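USER: If only I could read backbone structure tokens as easily as an amino acid sequence. It would mean a lot if you studied the pair and described how this chain folds. Here is the record:
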Amino acid sequence: MSELVSKKIALVIPAYRVAKLLPDVVASVPALVGRIFVVDDGCPEQSGKVLQSVTNDSRVAVLFHPINQGVGAAVVTGYRAALTWGADIVVRIDGDGQMDTSQMERFVHLLQSGRADFVKGNRFFEIASLSEMPTIRLIGNTVLSFAAKAMSGYWNVMDPTNGYSAIDSRVLRKLPLESLEKRYFFESDLLFHLALLRAVIAEIPVKSVYGDEQSSLSIVHCGVTFPLKYIARFLKRIFYNYFLRDFNVFSLELLLGIVLVVFGTIFGGIHWYRSIVENTPATTGTIMVAALPIILGFQLLVSAVSFDVGNFPKTPISDSY
């Protein structure tokens, strides 16, 4: 523990509709944390004021948003306060009591050991704990995890919506905090920006405790808005990493694969249409000219995906700042 305390460690807790749970969460925060920034995000239950009235923990600083801005905005406010305080490591948990604060030392240790720039929890690692996760959350998080992998390039990372995380302040200072998503897409957007920095992400198996609390996340809203956000960031990542910053095997395989598939599809479609209109079957040569580019193009695209899967960052960048 002495090594851990030698670093200035701050904790950020966004608070919205957690007035009953927040005091117990704060009371459970281990001594290794030097400062606790609780951000009341325009909470109708006045979670921040409730906490102030019951806690005597000198580490607690409550910050208020006059109106609700979203969990991402609340976390960013906490991040800024932690950096101003001079934190070396910034941990983030939610105020709903689902995250085991006794595991916090493991998060901090991974950063202090220089093995990662960002550490996050993974609720999918232990199969036994998945039985306690509500079915709708399990399905939703599985879908979001795959989308986040493709978007960020962190194919080795699971459970992107998990809010239990810790980040090295040197990396945090490099993030465009003003540009991060303000609401529920925040965690995925954070992964995207970490990917642009080529930061190393490590995961720690965690177990969440699910009670009667209700999530404010709308499944319908996610289904409508998240896909476009994932696609936009995926295209940006591919352009930045494989065409603007570098041009490598992936770049060639992607370009040639797309050209061949598009050519084969258009060529085959035109001749298929003509064969129907003119009632004359396409020749073997015509079929081959259409099929071979599609097959070859598909193989090149699969090879490009394979390259991308193995191209996630492996060397922490925090020491270079």
About this structure: The chain has two domains: 2-242, 247-309. The longest helix spans residues 249-277. The two ends are 26 Å apart (CA to CA). Residues 17 and 45 are 6 Å apart (CA to CA).
